[in-house]
Amino acid sequence: MRGEVTTVGGPLRRDPQAQVFGKVNEVGIGGNVAGLPPNMNIPGLIFGSFASRVGRLTTTIARVLMFMLFALIVTAVGHRPVQEVAARILAEPVRMGLMGLLAEILFVPVLCVTVLALLISIIGIPLLILVPFAIILMGVVMLVGYTAAAHLAGGWALERIGRTERNPYFVVTIGIVAIAGLTLLGRLLAIALGGFGAPLYIVGYLIEYLAWTVGFGAAIQTWIRMRRGPAVPPLSTAAPAPGPA
């Protein structure tokens, strides 16, 4: 056969004895959109296989349990600072959130500038050993703030069911479950429903991020106030009242 041959919807099937001297064009329908292979599983590429979704749920549970352990340790070691940070979150949540966001944005640039300044200065080179401790300190401050946010979330969740709990460890545990609740639920639904669980765990990640950020800002503000010390009351300039003659 001379000339070009074009098939639509499948490959060209021809007799072994047949000859085509022109060009053969095979055009698929649906399966080869935008040059993709016909057997490519688009939902699987986006949301992963069943095993990968189970793995993500397991990783999320492990992460929540790890944060729960750290928060319980912080509650045991520094219950009073956690209460102060929680009170500051409750008083000014928006301001604390903005402060935490600013600290997150500036932390890496300030750290890089500090390291560069220490490298340029010969005297400052030995001080580079303090940089890892500064990073660890910042992580501890964030964890204290997150624990305070979990304390508030736990108290709020228990109040919704009409229960007043005084045990701080139980309150913090419930708070962490409440903060990560949508994330866990979304990951669980993703196993059964695939991509339909994505909106839930995306919103859940946003809630977790807000808890970390607001708590971070409140912990920084509390730490600054603790460094300044208690305010000294102003001295009275009024003359003492005359005593009885």
Describe the secondary-structure layout.
Blueprint: E1 5-8, E2 24-27, H1 42-47, H2 50-77, H3 79-91, H4 93-120, H5 131-160, H6 168-179, H7 181-193, H8 198-228
Parallel strand pairs: 1-2
Report on the architecture of this protein.
This protein is mostly helical and 245 residues long. About 7% of the residues have low confidence. It has two domains: 31 residues, no CATH class; 180 residues, no CATH class.
Q: What's this entry about, in short?
A:
The protein has 245 residues and is mostly helical. The chain has 2 domains: 5-35, no CATH class; 48-227, no CATH class.
β-sheet strand percentage: under 5%
> Unreliable segments (pLDDT under 50, ≥5 consecutive)?
29-36, 231-239
> How many helices in DSSP terms?
8
- Could you tell me the mean pLDDT? 80
Termini separation: 134 Å
Largest sheet: 2 strands, parallel
Q: What is the approximate shape?
A: flat
* Helix content percent band: 55-70%
Tally of DSSP β-strands: 2
Give the ordered list of helices and strands: EEHHHHHHHH
Structural class by sheet pairing and helices: mainly alpha
Number of structurally distinct domains: 2
Report Rg: 31 Å
Strand order of the largest sheet: 1-2
Task: Please supply descriptive tags for the structure shown above.
mainly alpha, two-stranded parallel ribbon, 245 residues, flat, 8 helices
